[in-house]
Design a protein that fits this description.
Layout (H helix, E strand, L loop, with lengths): L3 H7 L1 H18 L7 H4 L22 H10 L9 E3 L5 E3 L8 E6 L6 H20 L5 E6 L7 H10 L7 E4 L6 H8 L3 E4 L2 E4 L2 E5 L5 E6 L5 H12 L11 H5 L7 E4 L4 E4 L1 H31 L5
Parallel strand pairs: 3-4, 4-5
Antiparallel strand pairs: 1-2, 3-8, 6-7, 8-9, 10-11
């Protein structure tokens, strides 16, 4: 029986179909060989869809300025902000001095990137917790979409996504405090009629309460987060960031939900799911076509080939 690769070589149509399948699979999984750079390196900010209302004029973050504000926060102290925890009790940020601290910002109605990023944060540090102990550092997640990110909403968010490390707290600032808190940590966001533009960052704070690094992206490697965190825990200096501004900016993940300013809540941008379903259907059709052509060729091949 002839090998499928040899068969494909003799039949360009089948070879083309197989190549298209492989190319799409590699692109879908982020293969550096064939994936588009834009898919591998998302843009700095969210760009809300206007598909529901093409006449909308959207306000958006200036990518360069937002990144510069984020980097300018490095060196700031932790600040003396007071926020409410999930039980509605006031928490002073300065109480976290003395141990390394990781800080990120979310909005609780998010169902895509915010939960994914926060779960990936947990995965990135769980080994550090197991090896060095949860008592050696802390994590704080702050809800920036006030008044909707209430203590109860933050509690529901942490429970819904299994964010249960013992050294992790979820905080709600007062609505009037949000601009000052986000500016202090270098976190930028803009609410528009169709969505939120915002950075996706983890802020690393040392035991002295000083911001020492901003980590960007949806997924975090050991080199990105765990290794610098271990250095902070042991009191060692973190190496100077060697990535270029462009490289750092390209690692920031975007959002794809639609914001309703009247309710302060977010709903699915269903066009994304339609595109995913269309791609899956196309892929299944190509696989079916290729298998069918291969089977027909086997039937037509004379014995002994």
């Amino acid at each position: 029986m002839q090998h499928p690769i040899g068969l494909a070589a003799k039949h360009p149509t089948l070879a083309t179909a197989l190549f298209v399948i492989v190319a799409h699979l590699l692109a879908w999984t982020g293969s550096p060989a064939l994936a588009n750079d834009a898919a591998e390196k998302p843009k700095l900010t969210a760009r809300p869809t206007t598909s529901l209302n093409p006449n909308l004029t959207l306000t958006s973050l200036d990518e360069k300025s937002a990144f510069e504000r984020s980097q300018a926060a490095v060196g700031n102290d932790l600040g003396d902000f007071v926020m409410l925890n999930r039980d509605g009790k006031p928490i002073e940020l300065r109480q976290y001095r003395g141990k390394p601290l990781l800080v990120n910002f979310v909005y609780t109605a998010c169902f895509q990137v915010c939960p994914t990023t926060t779960r990936n944060l947990q995965k990135a540090v769980v080994e550090t917790v197991n090896v060095m102990g949860a008592e050696r550092f802390n994590i704080v997640t702050i809800g920036f979409n006030q008044p909707f990110d209430s203590p109860q909403a933050m509690k529901d968010f942490s429970n819904r996504y299994g964010l249960d490390l013992p050294n992790w707290e979820f905080l709600s600032p007062a609505t009037a405090l949000v601009p000052e808190v986000t500016k202090h940590f270098g976190f930028s966001f803009v609410a528009t009629p169709a969505g939120f533009d915002h950075l996706n960052q983890i802020t690393m704070v040392d035991a002295e309460g000083r911001i020492v690094r901003q980590v960007y992206g949806e997924k975090f490697s050991a080199e990105d987060l765990a290794e610098p965190l271990k250095l902070l825990i042991t009191g060692s200096a973190i190496p100077i960031e060697v990535s270029t501004v462009k490289e750092l900016m390209e690692r920031v993940r975007i959002l794809c939900s639609v914001y309703d300013p009247a309710t302060g809540r977010y709903r699915t941008n269903y066009s994304i799911y339609f595109m995913m379903a269309g791609f899956a259907t196309f892929l299944i059709f190509l696989i079916y076509l290729s298998l069918n052509m291969w089977k027909n060729r086997r039937r037509e091949s004379p014995p002994g080939n």
